[in-house]
Amino acid sequence: MQQEAGIRKPEVLRGSSIIAQIKASRIEFVVSVPDITTSGGVLRPLAEGTTPRLIRICKEDEGVGICAGLAYTGRRSLLLIQQTGLLDSINAVRGVAMEYGLPICMMVGLLEKEPGVPPMQSKRYGVRIVEPILDAMGIAYHEIEGDVEVAKIGPAIDDAYTKSRPVVLLIGRRPLG
Amino acid sequence: MMKRDDCLRVLARHVTDLDIVLPVYSAAFAWIDIRPHPLNYLSHGAMGLASSHALGLALGRPDKRVIVLDGDGSLLMNLGSLVTIAAEAPPNLYHFVCQNGTYEANGGHPIPGRDRVDFAGFARSAGYRTVREFSNLTIFEQQIGALLSETGPVFADLKIVSGGPQERDYTRLHGPRVRQAFREALAAS
Fold first, then answer.
1. pLDDT (tens digit, 9 = 90+) per residue, B35-93?
2. Dist CA A82 CA A105 (whole Å)
3. Do the domain assignments include residue A78?
4. pTM of the model
5. Is A9 within the bounds of a domain?
6. Is the reported ipTM for this assembly greater than 0.90?
7. Does residue A97 belong to any structural domain of this protein?
8. A73 CB within 8 Å of a chain B CB
9. Is A3 within a domain?
10. DSSP letters along B110-122, please?
């Protein structure tokens, strides 16, 4: 869990850094409903490549099931969505990821979060509630707002697979393409 | 119309020890008595997600046939999965829906549009490679072997009548021992 306070200085978040971490984490499949925060910097470059394989889905809870099936086969995957999709998928995350203890790794763009503002201090209700909900569910999460925090991605994914539990990586600003 | 358990017994004769089978709710309770096997994948976590779990398994283990025994109410909760599965086109995925027109596990209430809904039509327009409908057990028995030899994704709508009362001990579907048994069987298979 992570708590941060105060407004942060402007900083850079590069999509290429995020993608490098995803690849270094041995993610073989990215399962995604497009998220406007990560659309240009992460999803579009991933779509132009061949690895990891991109699976486009219709609704985010589908992705929870797909990632679960892949996990049983020993294949690593990442669910790339925005927080509206996370909220829509809470029952699937509850049942599949938490109650079964499966390594469902979610990269979640925070739609309309103000850059540099901690999620819980956002003026947007839909942003403010995300971390308290994850806390209530007992789900580990990390805020990724600048390149310095991108280094958290690999260890967080490894930890999820090692301990067989879900993790949420909250992308707090639009990564540069 | 076919009786669900008769239909599942016919199917069971064509399922091998290498196949993964994902039955849901009423079909699951019937299936685990008809064909208990550690490669039965029973823990789907939330209603409607079986076909999505199946896609993950099919992509992760392309060497295995993955057979989903979906419910009509369950599939209505995840119709988008038909489009996703067709787009990914796993050749090893076989998607059956047991269509009895009711939420059998939730009190037998009718599904919306029960007299009009066309699951085979959904699958066909989503882009499944092969789509069939069965309402006669003899014909199902004649064709199921060949259907399971087709390149997937295959979809089959089984028009069935609701089964009788079942003893529903959900720990048989969601208990940790079930998942561990599956994990170990899959790793060894």
1. 999 999 998 989 999 999 999 999 999 999 999 999 999 999 999 999 999 999 999 99
2. 13
3. yes
4. 0.96
5. no
6. yes
7. yes
8. yes
9. no
10. EPTTTTT--HHHH
Q: Can you give the length of chain A in residues? A: 177
- The total number of residues shown for chain B amounts to 189
| Residue B162: closest CA among B107, B70, B96, B100 | B100
- Alpha carbon distance B137, B164 (integer Å): 18
Is A62 within 8 Å of B52 (Cβ atoms)?
A: yes
Q: How many domains does chain A have?
A: 1
In angstroms, the CA A116 to CA A151 distance is: 18
- Compare CB distances from A95 to B45, B52, B183 and report the shortest one's residue: B45
- d(Cα B49, Cα A97) in Å, to the nearest integer? 13
Q: Which of A56, A58, A69 has the CB atom closest to B53's CB atom?
A: A69
Please give the sequence-ordered ranges of beta strands (E in DSSP) within chain B, or none if there are none.
Answer: 2-3, 20-23, 66-71, 93-99, 102-103, 109-110, 130-134, 154-161
Query: Cα separation of A175 and A15, whole Å?
Result: 5
From first to last of its 177 residues, chain A has per-residue pLDDT tens of 444 557 777 688 999 999 999 999 999 999 999 999 999 999 999 999 999 999 999 999 999 999 999 999 999 999 999 999 999 999 999 999 999 999 999 999 999 999 999 999 999 999 999 999 999 999 999 999 999 999 999 999 999 999 999 999 999 999 998
Best mutation target among B47, B75, B78, B84 (most A Cβ atoms within 10 Å) is: B84
* Domain enclosing residue A159, as ranges: 15-171
The pair of structure tokens assigned to A172 is: 């707090």
Residue A177, chain B, CB below 8 Å: the answer is no
Domains (range + CATH), chain B: 2-188 (3.40.50.970)
Q: Which residues, at least 6 apart from A89, have a Cβ–Cβ distance to it below 8 Å?
A: A60, A61, A63, A64, A81
CATH number for the domain including A119?
A: 3.40.50.970
